[in-house]
Amino acid sequence: MKRRPVILLIIVSAILFVACTKKDETNGVTSKLFGNKDKSDTVYTYPFTGLETTEEPNNRAVAVMVNNQIQARPQSGLHEADIVFELLAEGNITRFLALYQSTLPERVGPVRSAREYYFNIANGYDALYIYHGAAKFVDQMIKDEGIDFLNGAVYDNDKKLFVRESFRVAPHNSYVLFDEVYKQSETKGYEVEATHDGLPFLDEDEEVIGKNAPYVKIEYYHNSPIVEYEYDETKEKYSRISDGEQTVDLETETPIELDNIFIIEADHQVIDSDGRRAINLESGGFGYLLQKGKVQKVQWENDNGYLIPVKDNEVVPFVRGKTWINVIQTTPPANVEQVQIEEYNE
Prior knowledge:
It contains five helices and 25 strands. By secondary structure, the protein is an alpha+beta fold.
């Protein structure tokens, strides 16, 4: 008779434990709280999109230099990038740095040459840096700064890591094949796994604030290049238009659809006779953040390598999904209105 209370206590405790476990399973966090070894119950978050996954996202990010000259359009693989950074290269041409982590495409390109501010961005996000060729002094800077890189000029058309396509002419025809990226990185002694710090993201039930912004036009120079974003209320995403044509994937014709458009002003300086630039991505400055058809005037900061929006000294979270970051000049060319936002009033 003395043992009955103990038995009852054990039974009650077991029932409560099972009930709590079942409750937490519905929230997708059982294995984290109770040590459940079934990994399929664990919910992880991709660091650069904020989207959920059942597999631990421990693959290292890969950042690829992508050509944006007319001869290189449409490009391959841009629609699968977590973040795309668009900055001026020489003259009035922009070039992309496409960051991949949540999705690894079959191939990306055309791949172009390196520039200092691009590889600094890649390094800030702890990404493997992929490019094709560079001036000797730029190659030396990459090595001196300890950047983990794969240079297409070394693997030119080896048909494993890089391939040159016959339907385009050089330098607009080099593509990186992702099946080999981590393999070749390992042969160079680079880490191919990483635990990336996550960007700040809105909770699913949080509302986006701001003024209506269904359309934005970015003009880097007079009439060229022109980037436009149009908001689709049904998809709750922005599509991208470049010089009057929708940006789509070469192979699949999948359109670029984005959840965040982050436009930031940074100081640009031409530093040599070839028109190469230095762009200050450290000091912060003014910006616009477009999400869900709305826009906010913000500041931007470089937070340990990540470019993030800030307002009233508080970080402004991104919407979960894909992001495009356009870097414009603090001092625009004469007679150029760099950013025009429809239905936006000061």
